[in-house]
């Protein structure tokens, strides 16, 4: 459904992404991993049309995303980015209601359905108790969950998450991952926590120095060799005794 075709990106004469090609099937949970500066956020920004590639293309259902009207694209792709916006005067409920914008005609009021969707989105993201609080006064993790609620209210078919667990305590990390995993939509998430990637992703893309180094299942990708080559760490690969999912242990000296 979503295809990235020979995509390159450069900025100020610096080559940031090099000839990246992959496709993502509907309903999959796809993780993007890679060291700092390897190009994960830049690639996601191009996919959600915040930046434009220098060459190559991104297509959704075979259509170039730059040919899809903005509102229509927002009905297809929702984003929780790394940056939280500076939105001084808005309450949490106001912000989550912004997720309904792609469905509204110019200056149209919110209807009953919008209010119901917003309430359900806040409940799912565990921010309903914050609904009347000013967004600007929330903690980093609370803001992150509000941005997730806004993305859920958008009811898109693809949810892009750029380091979604950043700022979240351990309970909320797992709560978020469980929540998005159970959504009947496609998830594309840049993740630094490789054990979360191992536990939740159907497929993982590994970025290295602006190129797609590897793509595969957690078992294919998260090997001692890849982790050493890409992240320069020693890793032991084992199984989580409770979930039976792949689990990694890291060490430098022992
Ligand atoms: N606006 C910009 N101007 C110049 N260089 C940029 C800009 N944005 C990103 N870069 C560079 O592009 C490269 C990729 O950055 P990007 O943020 O995509 O990496 P990342 O893999 O998401 O990193 P991290 O794990 O640290 O979030 C980095 O070298 C970064 O310095």
From TrEMBL:
Name of the protein in its database record: Iron complex transport system ATP-binding protein
Organism (species): Rossellomorea pakistanensis
PANTHER family listed in its UniProt record: ABC TRANSPORTER ATP-BINDING PROTEIN, HEMIN IMPORT ATP-BINDING PROTEIN HMUV
Ranges of residues in domain ABC transporter: 2-234
CDD domains for the chain: ABC_Iron-Siderophores_B12_Hemin
Lineage: Bacteria, Bacillati, Bacillota, Bacilli, Bacillales
Annotated Pfam families: ABC_tran
Keywords from the UniProt entry: ATP-binding, Nucleotide-binding
InterPro entries reported in the protein's UniProt record: AAA+_ATPase, ABC_transporter-like_ATP-bd, ABC_transporter-like_CS, P-loop_NTPase
GO molecular function, one term: ATP binding
